[in-house]
Design a protein that fits this description.
By secondary structure, the chain is of the alpha/beta class. It has 8 helices and 8 strands, in the order ααβββββαβββααααα. It has a domain of 194 residues. It has a 6-stranded mixed beta sheet, with helices on both faces. Strand 4 and strand 5 form a beta hairpin. The longest helix is centred in the C-terminal third of the chain and has 74 residues. The mean pLDDT is 85.
Length: 306
């Protein structure tokens, strides 16, 4: 039985990063993520459910939604599988967070705070190089010069992280190692290096959870495992269908190829028989074998045996 929670479940992820009492964990992770760029000193959790602005419009529910002391916003999500229009969905999420900064009245001059979308992916993005971190910004296509820093996407592909504990080089990699391996560990590493991992170990210990929290987590882990089973079924089904289609295409291709080759061989054999008949007639007429070979293209030895 696992000692620590699975951070890929809805309850597990929000227990680590979505609680006001433990916001120092999220702050530490964000600073590790943005090391060398900026330092987050404090955050305030915002309402994760954004109601629609207009009637019949669509609302939003984020996993984690917060703002820092500068007013910049962070949307932090865990995604266990890719789905139709996943990238467009992330664009919509950030666009909504930006558009809601608009203020009524003529005095507002489009002063915006940056919005960061941080997406943990328990899968690999298609049509992109498989790497741990993919940063998407708005920049000039040719010069790569940054156009604006108000919208930033950071995709973290967990399957692409393969380092062991002693290979982690910075706090960001240490966070990723702990999150990816948490359910298999009996102790959390890096506690001696940084106190935040000591606190994290206490929060993710299943034995320390209240009865109510444990019930919520058990239901969340059930949903997560059902999702994995569904994903595996879809993978196996796709594999079987692909095999069947490939086999059918192979048989059809083989038949067509065999038919074409048969025709070619038949035509060649017919030409050979015609040359032999002509050679026999010439030989019967007393024409010299070397001349027959020259005319028909047959080897001289073949003509002489006729």
């Amino acid at each position: 039985m696992s000692k620590f929670i699975n951070p890929f479940t809805d309850v597990g992820f929000k227990r680590i990063f979505g609680q006001e009492i433990n916001k120092d964990l999220l702050i530490d992770f964000l600073n590790a993520l943005l090391e060398g760029e900026r330092q987050v000193k404090d955050i305030q959790f915002l309402d994760k459910e954004l109601l629609p602005v207009y009637e019949k419009d669509r609302g939003l529910i984020y996993d984690v939604y917060c703002t820092d002391e500068k007013g910049e916003q962070f949307i932090v999500e865990m995604q266990n599988k890719e789905h139709v229009n996943f990238r467009e969905r992330t664009l919509y999420y950030l666009s909504q967070a930006i558009s809601r900064q608009g203020e009524q009245g003529a005095e507002w001059k489009f002063s915006l705070k940056a919005v960061y979308g941080v997406f943990f992916l328990n899968f690999s993005l298609t049509d992109l190089p498989h790497k741990l971190r993919t940063d998407i910004v708005l920049a000039d296509r040719d010069t790569h010069e940054l156009f604006t820093d108000k919208m930033r996407y950071i995709f973290i592909e967990l399957p692409s992280f393969t380092k062991e504990e002693d290979e982690c080089e910075n706090d960001f990699e240490r966070w990723i190692y702990v999150l990816k391996n948490m359910e298999k560990l009996q102790r959390l590493p890096f506690k001696a290096r940084k106190a935040v991992f000591e606190k994290l170990e206490q929060i993710v210990d299943i034995a320390a959870m209240s009865k109510e929290d444990r019930m919520k987590y058990d239901e969340s882990i059930k949903v997560y495992r059902d999702q994995l089973v569904t994903m595996e079924y879809e993978r196996q089904k796709g594999k079987a269908e692909g095999f069947a289609e490939g086999k059918a295409e192979g048989e059809a291709t083989g038949f067509a190829k065999g038919k074409a080759e048969g025709k070619a061989e038949g035509r060649e054999e017919g030409k050979e028989a015609e040359r032999l008949r002509n050679a026999r007639g010439m030989k019967a007429a007393g024409i010299a074998p070397d001349l027959i070979a020259q005319i028909t293209g047959l080897p001289l030895e073949t003509v002489e045996r006729l």
